[in-house]
Amino acid sequence: MSLNNANRRVFLLTELFEITMGNKLDMNKMTFDAPEVNFVGRSSSNNGVAAKVDRIAGLEPYPSGDITVALGGSLGTSCLQFEPFYTSQNVAVLHALEPMSIQAKLFICSVIMFECRYKYSAFGRELNVHIRDDFNLELPVTPSGDPDWAFMEAYIDGLHSKPVTTGIRSVNVPLDIQNWKEFLVDDVLKIINGKGITIDEIAEHPGDLEAVQSGEENMGVLGLISREYCDEMDYKRVDEPCLTVARSGTSGYVAYHPNGCVVGDSAKILLLKDSSAKNVYVYLFVRTILEANRYKYCYGRKVTEDGYKNVMIKLPVKSDGSPDWVWMEQYMKSLPYSDRINL
């Protein structure tokens, strides 16, 4: 089914949805004693869900079926929520004025993100100013000019993909965090600072090395650049698996790069110091631990080398008190779909 064959008309977003500005909660003030409510932030990963938090007395969560739109961070990221939720600061919530199918909402989420990609930016044409005013989107319409919900539903249903399967049976491996030990990031990771890399440089010197800056989209990868050019410019690169952390923008966001990368001035490379630990499973385990500290870098607080070195993280340990890299690897391998990881 082709989108090019559909008649279209422009609609104001307010014609289709009641738009509110979310709960404006801070995740670092949430509690996690009996978490049951999704907490939606401004991230483009995990459908925007940062964590599950405790229900707040007197504050009813937004219902499942509403759409969240990030007004900062991963600007414009639009996600259909399938469970009740609270929101962080700068997240708008869209509630359909008329009954609307899941497929139609997913179609509209894609259109919203497309509109935001070029028309809105932080500190420029800000989305939060326009979303309840003149934000518009072009949708397929019927001959009478109404939204063609049937076309949208059929289009989404026609996007076939093969279901992902796993040969790993779900095993409840206990995470005995009380017996984990605290380490400084500097105890386990080497930090490599980047230098400025531009989109123009990547276009003029194409290659096969991932060039990484801040940002969550595509794991911060701007494009592929020449290794030889990076060496000529003395850009910091590695040719082995590594993590990167965003210094600014989406500060604290951590991504895994299986084939190494070069980083610009808004990101840093993180390498495990223990060579025996350098495999995809351990890196992904450590990435999750580091991401749990991301809330510390909201409101423009940047990741600095000295500050990040002194961040405390908890890891499983062996009887001698050193990190138990083997346990971390085996834990990751026990998770469903771990057999789908590209080694």
Automatic annotation (TrEMBL):
<keyword id="KW-0680">Restriction system</keyword>
<dbReference type="InterPro" id="IPR000055">
    <property type="entry name" value="Restrct_endonuc_typeI_TRD"/>
</dbReference>
<feature type="domain" description="Type I restriction modification DNA specificity">
    <location>
        <begin position="10"/>
        <end position="158"/>
    </location>
</feature>
<dbReference type="GO" id="GO:0003677">
    <property type="term" value="F:DNA binding"/>
</dbReference>
<keyword id="KW-0238">DNA-binding</keyword>
<feature type="domain" description="Type I restriction modification DNA specificity">
    <location>
        <begin position="179"/>
        <end position="333"/>
    </location>
</feature>
<dbReference type="Pfam" id="PF01420">
    <property type="entry name" value="Methylase_S"/>
</dbReference>
<dbReference type="GO" id="GO:0009307">
    <property type="term" value="P:DNA restriction-modification system"/>
</dbReference>
<dbReference type="InterPro" id="IPR044946">
    <property type="entry name" value="Restrct_endonuc_typeI_TRD_sf"/>
</dbReference>
<protein>
    <submittedName>
        <fullName>Type I restriction modification DNA specificity protein</fullName>
    </submittedName>
</protein>
<comment type="similarity">
    <text>Belongs to the type-I restriction system S methylase family.</text>
</comment>
